[in-house]
Amino acid sequence: MKKFTLLTILSIILALFMVACGSDEEETTGDDQNGNGDSNGQEEAAGDNGEATAEEGSLEIFSWWTGAGEEAGLLALIDLFEEKHPNIEVVNAAVAGGAGTNAQAVLASRMQGNDPPGTFQIHGGAALNTGWVAAGRMEPITDLYDSEGWHDKFPQDLIDMVTSDEEIYSVPVNIHRSNVLFYNVEIFEEHGLEAPTTFDEFYEVADALQAAGVTPLALGDRESWTALHLFETILLGSLGADGYNALWTRDLDFDSPEVVEAIEHFHKFLTYVNDDHAARNWQDAAQMVAQGNAAMNIMGDWAAGYFATDLELEPNVDFGFVPTPNTTGKFMVVTDNFGLPKDVENPEIVKDFLRVLGSVEGQDVFNPLKGSIPARVDADVSKYNAYGQQTIEDFREAVLTPSLAHNSAAPAGFVSQADQAVNIFVASGNVDQLVQALQTAAEQNIQ
Fold it and tell me: Which residue in 55, 175, 201, 390 is deepest, having the highest Cβ count within 10 Å?
């Protein structure tokens, strides 16, 4: 109830004022069965931009950030939010599992059961737009972009990725580059090798390393998405940005000669990986490079956060990095986003978190630890290490493409079928089988 301060001594006005005060002194109701504060008793205050912000309650943040630099980044972001909103209880509902495989299954169950978390991590692009937005389970937050003045603070291409039917549905907290080849600097110097930037250079380097008894390429595909991740970088390198993007518009078929050639490159890359790849995850593969048990690893730049934050390695000293072969000047984008699900108990608290998430301060607290770069164009570049600064520069100039393995390029149905087909191929090496499986998946899922 709005209170008015009047400079008058008229008794009737004073009496009304006291009644208004008394109504605010009523006790608020307790938490509901989900641990969310009752919105009917929730107090609000004006935010920095005149928007309502919640003062008390709880916020459940759902993600798959449980390891490497990603957990450190999330905890730093939560600390910042709690500093600004000390009366809001944060529940970190992270679910372990690389690329969110397990978390997305849990999220689907909760969303379908009308038990949405306060906010949840999702990749911008198809994962968001053809998923929960199309299902009518998200609230638009265009008004938040209006009130915070964000329309020119994020690249327009990125805003387009999180827009559907002219409404914006999420806030990007970061930009990851998916197409990165990391390498052990000491191994390369010891053998007099240069980081490969083309397929031919990669094969030459890998042959030299293999002859010297060094595992050329570390792979950890115990979680199946890592094989699909490797495959998408080879697709991009073989097809180029235009050809790669044509796959997602059905202007290029998966049974075309160009895709067959890319699959043959993929098959050759697999001849250079560690024998125990099926028993390792992506962190294990990265650690092989860090410890000198393998020379190279193709992974998104969350591996840079793992190297720098968890293993305390220095970029360009302990580990080097270049775009994956044949992708110089191309940037495969993975962007983590958070939005506002429908029917949450505390939407204003969620918006408070999104304000922090989308701020310069929030992005610069999170991304240096995560290994990603800020989604905002006005973040403080000096807060980032050599890897981050180089990636920020590359992002501004490169041709951008969406990631298949991380649910930005294609609908979830295609991603699931492609993931299964690629992992069968890792074991079988049957090119024709993979081609047919991908073509069938495209016909069934990509309109």
Answer: 175
Which candidate, 419, 413, 423, places its Cα nearest to that of 444?
A: 413
Structure tokens at 96: 């372990």
**Nearest Cα to 233, choosing from 282, 203, 204, 269?**
269
Contacts of 228 (CB under 8 A, 6+ apart): 404, 405, 415, 418, 419, 422, 423
Per-residue pLDDT tens digits of the chain, which is 447 residues long = 333 333 333 333 333 333 333 333 333 333 333 333 333 333 333 344 444 455 789 999 999 999 767 899 999 999 999 999 999 999 999 998 766 778 988 999 999 999 999 999 999 988 889 889 999 999 999 999 999 999 999 999 899 999 999 999 999 999 999 999 999 999 999 999 999 999 999 999 999 999 999 999 999 999 999 999 999 999 999 999 999 999 999 999 999 999 999 999 999 999 999 999 999 999 999 999 999 999 999 999 999 999 999 999 999 999 999 999 999 999 999 999 999 999 999 999 999 999 999 999 999 999 999 989 999 999 999 999 999 999 999 999 999 999 999 999 999 899 999 999 999 999 999 999 999 999 999 999 998
The count of C-alpha atoms lying within 13 angstroms of the C-alpha of 260, restricted to the half-sphere facing its C-beta, is: 7
Q: Which residue has the tokens 């649910």?
A: 407
101 half-sphere exposure, CB direction, 13 A CA radius: 12
Class of residue 284 by CB neighbours under 10 A (exposed 0-12, middle 13-18, buried 19+): middle
How far is the C-alpha of 382 from the C-alpha of 388, rounded, in Å? Answer: 9
Rounded CA-CA distance 432/299 in Å is 26
Closest-CA residue to 118 (of 146, 88, 96, 142): 88
Contact 101, 80 (CB under 8 A): no
